[in-house]
Amino acid sequence: MPNSPLEPVDNKILDALQADGRLTNQALADEVGLSTSPCWRRVRQLEESGVIGGYRATLDRQKIGLGVLAFVRVKIDSHSEAEAEEFSNSVARLREVIACYSIAGDADFLLQVVSPDLDTYADFAMTVIRRLPRIKEMQTTFVLKEIKPFKGFPVGLG
Fold first, then answer.
1. What does the alpha-carbon distance between residue 13 and residue 29 come to, in Å, rounded to a whole number?
2. Per-residue pLDDT tens digits for 76-109
3. Are 36 and 83 members of one domain?
4. Between the chain's N and C termini, which has fewer beta carbons within 10 Å?
5. Which domain does 13 fall in, by range?
């Protein structure tokens, strides 16, 4: 299933579950136009194939006290596989880093970071990020307003 295009009904299932992961099988079946047994089987296939990797609650970061959202572009001083792996492993352990990407262009990594406030971010940046292995340069961009926060992937584009 992951190497072939999904069927339109699978896309409907994925859209519905991304919007509300707590839908009952009956409600999901009604929404996508299937009876309950075929709907349940399709969801199981999507789970077993890894298309659906899990279910979780979507939180409002500001309501849980995380007022700062920042993107940090990082250059490392060496590009060997071992050193990039060491950096990646270090970043993966940081709770404040909610996403990390290896990127092309004038930086090597892009980190998405949350923090309660600017002072806490500044302390984290200077005492933690700056001390990560092989950091050559870092640049922070602060989010002023979330125009379109991540709500799920646009299924059916592929």
1. 8
2. 987 788 888 889 999 999 999 999 999 999 999 9
3. no
4. C
5. 8-48
